[in-house]
Structure formats: structure tokens, C-alpha cells
């Protein structure tokens, strides 16, 4: 059974702090990894993709991948109340196959 | 990023009727489309995967005769909920991936309420 595990949270951080979200995956054949943000009542929005080991930065977001440890993380710097949402980690094997989603981590940023 | 639209955004129907939901890729050719369902406070549940011109592949436990999926072109997939019942009330979301990128983009979702 291919799985992606996330801590459900809630993760609470004050405004301006760094939020750290983590996930692990079970399928060593996974090749691509994604972070989605989902606001309540809305559909998921892609915020980061990462395919190779190391860090990938995009604005306030940094994704980290460690394939040896089967670990993916997302750092959000200078967290804002508008970042409060559920963050979904997903992995995929071959292109065109379905994503495997974790259950999501709820982030709450207090002002 | 690529844009995926869904129509309608919400629909209310009576029990026993059928409802069709459209999913369109607006600025790319969607080689593969996915249909998800999400109940309140729960995770996304993949219902089926469809490739243009092929029959959809349904996940275990999803009734293919109840949830009809048609992916007739590279920009359009439809999900028809046949003989809908109140327990089918949910948030239905499609997503798509194209030939030139690995990312999967989601439509805005369709909220179905069956009365």
C-alpha cells in the first residue's frame, strides 16, 4: 500500500514565524513530490513541486526532499494569517499516474 | 500555472435524477484527468483516472455505472452522477495533467447537494 503520512496538526505559529510542515512516503519508486494548499471549502492549489534531492525555493516557500529518508518538507517563512489552510503533501510515481495524497496538515497563523 | 475550469460550481438536484459535471483544461491539452470526491473535514478521495479516448479507470469501491466518466477530447472530461441519492452529496473536484509538465492542476470544484 503506497502511503503518504502527514501530521494532521493543527500546527499553530505566530505571524512572522517559520512554519515547518513534514511528510513521509512509503513508495521508493516515487519520482515527483508536490505541496498543495487547500482553504476550507475550496479545491487544492499547487504551491510547490520538487523532483530531486535538496532544497527548492519559491518566494516565502522552500520545499526540501530527501529520497534516502523518504521525507519531504515545506517551510513557510514570514508566515501570514492568509497562510492558514490545510497543506497537502502528495507523491507520484510515473508521469500521468494519480497523485497519492497525505491527509493534510492544518496550519493556523495567528496575528 | 495551467488553468482548469469546472461547471457548474454548485448544483442542487432531486434524488433519483442525474447530474453532469464538466471539467475543462483552458490553456493546455490534458492527457490525463482525475476525478476526486471530498466530504466535509475529510481527505480527497480519488474516484477515477481518465485518458482521452480511453475508458476511465475507477478506484476500488467506486461504482462505474453510477459515476460515468467521459474524456472525449484533450480539453474536456465529464462526470455524470446517475440516479443521485443524498449520500452522493459531496464536493467533486477534477484535476488534469498535460504532456509538457508533471504538475497536476485542480479545477475549482463542484458542490453537489441531492435533496
Describe the structure.
The complex is a heterodimer of chains A (111) and B (115). With 111 residues, chain A is mostly beta strands. Chain A is built from no helices and eleven strands. In chain A, strands 2, 4, 5, 9, 10 and 11 form a six-stranded mixed beta sheet that branches. A five-stranded antiparallel beta sheet of chain A has the order 1-3-8-7-6, with no helix packed on it. In chain A, a hairpin with a 2-residue loop joins strand 6 (54-58) and strand 7 (61-66). Chain B is mainly beta and 115 residues long. Helices cover 0% and strands 54% of the residues of chain B. In chain B, the strands form two sheets. In chain B, strands 2, 4, 5, 6, 9, 10 and 11 form a seven-stranded mixed beta sheet that branches. A four-stranded antiparallel beta sheet of chain B has the order 1-3-8-7, with no helix packed on it. Chain B is globular, with a radius of gyration of 13 Å. Chain B starts with a strand and ends with a strand. The chains are: A mainly beta (111), B mainly beta (115). Chain A binds chain B through residues 32, 34, 36, 41-46, 49, 51, 88, 92, 95-99, 101, 103-104, and chain B through 1, 31-32, 34, 43-44, 46, 49, 51, 91, 93, 97, 102-109.
Layout of helices and strands, plus pairs?
The complex is a heterodimer of chains A (111) and B (115).
Chain A: E1 4-6, E2 11-14, E3 19-25, E4 32-38, E5 45-50, E6 54-58, E7 61-66, E8 71-76, E9 85-92, E10 100-101, E11 105-110
Parallel strand pairs in A: 2-11
Antiparallel strand pairs in A: 1-3, 3-8, 4-5, 4-9, 6-7, 7-8, 9-10, 9-11
Chain B: E1 4-7, E2 10-13, E3 19-25, E4 30-38, E5 45-51, E6 57-58, E7 67-73, E8 76-81, E9 90-98, E10 105-106, E11 110-114
Parallel strand pairs in B: 2-11
Antiparallel strand pairs in B: 1-3, 3-8, 4-5, 4-9, 5-6, 7-8, 9-10, 9-11
